[in-house]
Amino acid sequence: MLLLGLTGSIATGKSTVSTILHSAPHKLPIIDADVLARKVVEPGTPGYKKIVAYFLPTTPDLLLTPSEQDSIGGGGADSRGRPLNRPALGRRVFGDDPERRRDRAILNGIVHPAVRREMYKEILYYFCHGHWAVVLDVPLLFESGLDVICGAIMVVAVSDPAVQMRRLRARNPHLSAEDAEHRVRSQGDVRQKARRAETRGDGGGVVVWNDGSVEELEKEVGAVMGKVRKRSPQWWAWALLLVPPLGSVVVLWNLFQGWRWRRRWDSEQRREKAKQR
Ligand SMILES: CC(C)(COP(=O)(O)OP(=O)(O)OC[C@H]1O[C@@H](n2cnc3c(N)ncnc32)[C@H](O)[C@@H]1O)[C@@H](O)C(=O)NCCC(=O)NCCS
Ligand SMILES: Nc1ncnc2c1ncn2[C@@H]1O[C@H](COP(=O)(O)OP(=O)(O)OP(=O)(O)O)[C@@H](O)[C@H]1O
């Protein structure tokens, strides 16, 4: 089974592409890291407890008040505690200054391992059901190291940063211009991610440009999926499932390839930095 990593930057169109990939004619199952990242910090979970222990003393509005819960339809507080006030936590961790970077690293250190565990369980489920591919929708695919396990990576990118900012503010009108700017800056430049995917070569890394309309996007997704599909037909997914030793060898080979792509990219980056000095 092909693990197709779907990534990009904030508001570049990952969720829109993931909806396209989930619908006909592609009909792929989706594992959404944002959904899992919410699940693993629900009240009562170990993730929730760690976040409250670290952030509450310095973030008085970290938990929703009963009236805020009513207004978002979250129900009343129960014995597991009040839900997190996500915008308030976002203000603590999104941005470029050292304090926010440190707090973001701490939050990532709590949330990412729990997300990875949930993700592996879902991958196993889809593998056992004989799907030819599953989409891993992960905004921070490269940053979290999950690129290594993916047989192919699709980056959804926009070439004009103003388009990204406009779509973000239209989708999240509650964000101030400053908050929106902080969120965009908290993720790497999407054009850099596009270049990184392309270094993986034909079908192993593809870029979907989303500067145009949704109809154009659908066509573009169709075209790049043609390249991806060539590398991993349905019969191959069944062969891996029915011949476990073959499946194990292929998993190891894919991990090795992913690791080699990562190393190649890191050394290219080092060379570029050295040239700039
Ligand atoms: C800070 C939190 C509570 C803000 O929640 P909020 O509901 O306001 O935003 P949401 O979760 O929908 O995120 C919106 C977008 O921000 C970006 N983003 C989220 N977390 C991060 C991060 N740690 N670093 C950079 N960008 C991020 C993603 O593109 C995401 O799609 C939340 O984003 C969070 O818990 N982040 C840490 C976990 C994480 O990395 N999630 C991303 C997938 S693993
Ligand atoms: N081609 C397009 N034309 C117009 N609007 C678009 C297009 N693609 C996406 N959008 C809109 O832009 C906004 C951001 O898109 P989407 O939610 O798919 O991005 P995302 O990368 O998943 O964002 P996030 O990382 O924040 O979850 C949405 O409101 C979406 O409807």
UniProtKB/TrEMBL annotation:
GO molecular function: ATP binding; dephospho-CoA kinase activity
Keyword Transmembrane helix appears in the UniProt entry: yes
Superkingdom of origin organism: Eukaryota
Transmembrane segments: 235-256
Annotated CDD domains: DPCK (cd02022)
A Pfam family annotated for this UniProt entry: CoaE
Keywords attached to this entry: ATP-binding, Membrane, Nucleotide-binding, Transmembrane, Transmembrane helix
InterPro entries in UniProt: Depp_CoAkinase (IPR001977), P-loop_NTPase (IPR027417)
Protein's GO biological process: coenzyme A biosynthetic process
Residue ranges, annotated region (Disordered): 67-95
HAMAP family: Dephospho_CoA_kinase
Record protein name field: Dephospho-CoA kinase
Annotated organism of origin: Trichoglossum hirsutum
